[in-house]
């Protein structure tokens, strides 16, 4: 018995390991190698492969290769080997020399009407390369350039989303046509939403059958993601689902597993993405913007140590499109091309990668003709048509590469603030969909309701599409509205599922206080929390809805033990009964669980002290109206907040720290000369400050104190709402901007900092990052990216940003991500006007462009808190997620049905405070529950997992939900910053 292993050429590391394990023989796959070469080069390539195996101490036992038409190859026999008799004779010759002639499952001799060169011939050539006329060995004194034909399938750019998908159908059909006519042709498809559109619209056609065959053969390579979405703006789970749905689709539809993720035209990269790719089994990535200018090939390492191999296209993804031009062989073009190749070769070892295509380009066969001519005209270079996976297979074992860690901040940070009408839905839609998944999974596990898997698949794909990197395209308003409607659909569809799942649980909660109205408060986050509840409820009589006289006398809110809870009725409405808007602070609501409060009638209204002590400067106006304006002050046991009546500036004094944490916080704007959302800022140098109309006290009740600043910048009305709470240490800031005119300015919230050299840390997808953790050498490099001096200051924060030192600091939680970092200043970008977009609109004699942002009213929410220690001590990540994922409440009116659940409980929890629950969902297949968690603070974490009230056994899986752990365990162990997905039994 011979012990053998299958290898691809170049897998020397794998060969060495196999040799150490006792393997002495190799079965080689040479299909991809030969597919990239001219027939004249086969013999020398095979000889090189044979030498590689011999160098590792392996004998070739057999070869795995797809049959190649024999008429393509000239053997050492007279004429072309195109007759079965010659083939039989050749088999006999090899057998006489004791060479193996097995066909490994391909019964070639029986199919006498087909003329194939089989694996037995390859074995013969390995031993007797003189049978073939050989050319110079690729790479011997040459720079091999792997040319990747592709089309950047830009949805929403050259038309509406639907129109771009239609163009994609033509692109794919053209690639199939060329591949049928030219076996050496290869093509790459970078996003599977376009692939899916082609498949769905070509059911039952010969083109679809041929397409699937080409994909399975590797001649057309499909993507590892669903859509080409931004990296920096979307929440982490959107990035995860984009990869999950992309790879699942490739596996299900074609039976292939993609290994390359192409992030074409993406202007920034989040630091944990390499770990996400490795968890999905994707070891390779293509970067086409913002990468380090002096490295084309490098390893990118996530914060947990996971790595992916990256090709960074320093000339951009359209670099190789010139190879398809008829004039590429002209003197100047050739000279320029040689210079570019030399430049790229100086940043990466042989071989090189060159994309050939651009935005929604259709392929042509001219590329093959041009490459053949180029190989003759440029003897120092060797052009090979290939797919990305072929290229990465060649460079996968390259040693001595530089390893980079960190993020690349977006070169288009203004997209979020300039097109705020689209991006304002991203966070709430994602949060709602994740909450709906959590409680749907719990309903399924508890037996209350079936999990709506198909509905979630549909909504996630629509949400992913809404975060595509294209905007303000040729489709104009129609294309933008498609994206907006996709995100709103995800929000509304997720909310509909969430409401049903919360109701299923709330209606089973016990009512220990007779005659009360239960309010079940749900916490969708993975930690116990105190937070504000704003709820709407209606009071009904037992028989007649309007018989609620007891409630009209007075109200009392209590917990399950009957302890009173301060609350405030904001307003009520009446027709046949009474409805209320009620606020209160719920304390100790369990991790991914609920706590119930009870509203009961009272003989008289409950009385509680006000949340803050308030001193109003306007009270002095009656005594002396001619005096200078001062400040209004509100103060609770945590903060003293002063609001200057003349300037609107806000100062915050932390009573525990005995210091101001910010002084002179205000809203201001930088005036611009006009630009678009992806171009450099053209500042006039002037700052526009807010003019204050009025500062007034809106509320001071037992729950909260609210002060508003009515102001304007130019003629843009702004309302700033400042809120202190009775029992919460934070200052909430809600800003309403009425964008009623097109104004060329960037409106920001300025937050001055009290420390001279604060350190900035902030949330990113699946973790945290420091402002100095940026890939060296990465920067804007094209005219449609922001200038470097400003790019170095901008960061996209997911949920929170911390400014401070290990001794103390300030956390700003936010539902909008764009911040500008200064020496002693933090600026939160709100909204930015622009003069033009990429599209010119001509109507008769009038030439215009789309105006962004859209006119309307926009809200921006922030929350400021402070304390001793750094962001880990302050648990800034919890503050950020709490702001964007509020407590959810359900009123229960049915006090007749039997109730089986206690007044409060947790459904899911972990003991480690630095382990964050990212998602809880039903598995994509089967009946198990999937949880995804990550360690955020950079510490080793060990914790049990409690699900439905009990510690549970679980198995580790990868992102594709395939088990990676050999045995189930009850202890979750996470490396610093590690993302881990686990499978729980319900």
List keywords for this structure.
single chain; 22 helices; 10-stranded antiparallel β-sheet; 25% helix; 986 residues; 31% strand; 9-stranded antiparallel β-sheet; alpha+beta
Short description:
This protein has 986 residues and is an alpha+beta fold. Strand 46 and strand 47 form a beta hairpin.
Give a verbal description of the structure.
This protein is of the alpha+beta class. The chain has 22 helices and 52 strands. Strands 22, 23, 24, 25, 26, 27, 32, 35, 38 and 39 form a ten-stranded antiparallel sheet that branches. The protein has a nine-stranded antiparallel sheet with strand order 28-29-30-31-42-37-36-33-34. It has a five-stranded mixed sheet with strand order 9-10-12-11-15. A hairpin with a 5-residue loop joins strand 24 and strand 25. It is globular, with a radius of gyration of 33 Å.
Number of strands: 52
Largest sheet: 10 strands, antiparallel
How much beta, percentage-wise?
Answer: 25-35%
Distance between the termini: 46 Å
Mean pLDDT: 89
Please tally the helical runs, counting DSSP H or I stretches of 4 or more residues.
22
Rg (CA only): 33 Å
Give the low-confidence spans. 65-140
Shape: globular
Question: What helical percentage do the residues reach?
Answer: 25-40%
* Helical/strand content category: alpha+beta
């Amino acid at each position: 018995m011979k012990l053998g292993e299958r290898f691809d050429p170049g897998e020397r590391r794998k060969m060495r390991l196999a040799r150490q394990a006792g393997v002495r023989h190799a079965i080689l796959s040479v299909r991809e190698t030969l597919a990239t070469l001219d027939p004249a080069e086969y013999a020398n390539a095979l000889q090189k492969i044979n030498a590689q195996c011999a160098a590792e101490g392996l004998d070739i036992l057999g070869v795995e290769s797809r049959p190649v038409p024999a008429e393509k190859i000239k053997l050492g026999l007279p004429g072309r080997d195109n007759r079965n008799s010659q083939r039989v004779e050749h088999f006999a010759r090899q057998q006489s020399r004791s060479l193996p002639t097995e066909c490994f499952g391909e019964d070639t001799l029986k199919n006498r009407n087909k003329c194939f060169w089989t694996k037995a011939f390859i074995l013969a050539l390995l031993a007797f390369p003189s049978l073939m006329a050989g050319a110079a060995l690729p790479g011997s004194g040459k720079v091999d350039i792997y040319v990747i034909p592709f089309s950047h399938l830009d949805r929403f750019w050259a038309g509406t989303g639907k129109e771009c998908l239609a163009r994609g159908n033509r692109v794919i059909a053209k690639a199939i046509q060329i591949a049928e006519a030219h076996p050496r042709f290869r093509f790459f498809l970078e996003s599977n939403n376009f692939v899916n559109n082609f498949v769905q619209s070509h059911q039952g056609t010969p083109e679809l059958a041929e397409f699937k065959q080409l994909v399975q053969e590797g001649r057309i390579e499909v993507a590892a993601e669903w859509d080409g979405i931004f990296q920096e703006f979307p929440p982490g789970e959107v990035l995860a689902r984009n990869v999950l749905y992309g790879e699942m689709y490739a596996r299900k539809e074609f039976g292939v597993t993609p290994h390359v993720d192409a992030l074409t035209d993406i202007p920034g990269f989040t630091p944990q993405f390499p770990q996400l790719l490795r968890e999905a089994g994707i070891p390779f990535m293509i970067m086409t913007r913002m990468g380090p200018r002096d490295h084309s090939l490098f390893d990118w390492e996530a914060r947990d140590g996971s790595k992916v191999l990256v090709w960074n296209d320093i000339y951009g993804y359209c670099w190789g499109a010139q190879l398809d031009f008829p004039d590429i062989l002209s003197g100047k073009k050739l000279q320029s091309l040689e210079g570019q190749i030399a430049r790229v070769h100086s940043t990466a070892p042989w071989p090189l990668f060159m994309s050939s295509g651009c935005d929604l380009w259709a392929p042509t066969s001219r590329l093959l003709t041009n490459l053949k001519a180029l190989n003759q005209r440029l003897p120092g270079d060797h052009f090979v048509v290939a797919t990305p996976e072929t290229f990465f297979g060649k460079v996968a074992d390259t040693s001595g590469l530089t390893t980079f860690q960190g993020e690349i901040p977006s070169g288009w940070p203004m997209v979020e603030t300039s097109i705020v009408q689209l991006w304002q839905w991203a966070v709430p839609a994602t949060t709602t969909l994740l909450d709906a998944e959590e409680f749907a999974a719990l309903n399924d596990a508890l037996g209350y309701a079936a999990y709506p898997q198909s509905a979630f698949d549909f909504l996630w794909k629509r949400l992913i599409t809404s975060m595509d990197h294209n905007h303000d395209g040729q489709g104009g308003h129609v294309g933008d509205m498609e994206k907006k409607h996709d995100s709103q659909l995800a929000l509304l569809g997720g909310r509909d599922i969430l409401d049903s799942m919360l109701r299923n649980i709330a209606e089973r909660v016990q009512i220990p206080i007779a005659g009360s109205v239960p309010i079940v408060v749900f916490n969708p986050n993975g930690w116990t929390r105190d937070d504000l509840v704003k709820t709407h409820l209606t009071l009904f009589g037992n028989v007649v809805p309007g018989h609620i006289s007891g409630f009209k006398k007075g109200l009392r809110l209590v917990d399950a033990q009957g302890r009173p809870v301060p609350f405030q009725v904001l307003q009520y409405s009446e027709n046949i009964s009474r409805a209320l808007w009620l606020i209160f602070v719920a304390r100790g609501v369990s991790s991914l669980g609920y706590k119930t409060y009870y509203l009961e009638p009272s003989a008289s209204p409950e009385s509680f002290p006000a949340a803050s002590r308030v001193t109003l400067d306007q009270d002095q106006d009656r005594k002396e109206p001619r005096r200078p304006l001062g400040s209004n002050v509100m103060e609770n046991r945590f903060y003293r907040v002063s609001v200057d009546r003349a300037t609107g500036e806000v100062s915050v004094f932390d009573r525990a720290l005995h210091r101001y944490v910010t002084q002179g916080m205000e809203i201001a704007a930088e005036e611009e000369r006009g630009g678009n959302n992806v171009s450099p800022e053209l500042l006039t140098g002037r700052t526009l400050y807010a003019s204050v109309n009025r500062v007034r006290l809106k509320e001071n009740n037992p729950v909260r104190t609210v002060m508003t600043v009515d102001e304007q910048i130019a003629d843009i009305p702004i309302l700033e709402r400042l809120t202190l709470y009775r029992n919460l240490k934070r200052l909430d800031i809600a800003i309403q901007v009425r964008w009623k005119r097109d104004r060329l300015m960037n409106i920001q919230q300025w937050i001055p900092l009290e420390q001279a050299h604060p350190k900035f840390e902030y949330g990113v997808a699946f973790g945290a990052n420091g402002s100095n953790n940026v890939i060296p050498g990465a920067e804007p490099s094209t005219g449609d990216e922001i200038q470097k001096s400003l790019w170095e200051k901008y960061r996209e924060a997911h949920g929170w940003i911390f400014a401070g030192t290990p001794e103390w600091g300030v956390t700003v939680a936010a539902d909008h991500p764009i911040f500008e970092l200064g020496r002693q200043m933090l600026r939160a970008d709100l909204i930015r006007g622009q003069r033009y977009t990429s599209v010119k609109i001509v109507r008769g004699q009038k030439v215009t462009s789309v105006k962004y942002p859209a006119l309307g009213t926009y809200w921006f929410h922030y929350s400021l808190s402070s304390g001793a220690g750094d962001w880990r001590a302050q648990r800034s990540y919890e503050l950020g997620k709490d702001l964007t994922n509020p407590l959810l409440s359900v009123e229960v009116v049915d006090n007749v049905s039997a109730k089986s659940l206690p007044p409060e409980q947790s459904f899911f929890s972990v003991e480690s405070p630095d382990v964050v629950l990212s998602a809880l969902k039903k598995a994509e297949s089967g009946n198990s529950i999937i949880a995804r968690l990550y360690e955020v603070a950079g510490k080793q974490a060990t914790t049990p997992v409690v699900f439905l009230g009990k510690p549970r056994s679980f198995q580790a899986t990868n992102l594709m939900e395939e088990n990676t752990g050999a045995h189930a365990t009850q202890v979750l162990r996470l490396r610093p910053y590690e993302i881990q997905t686990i499978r729980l039994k319900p």
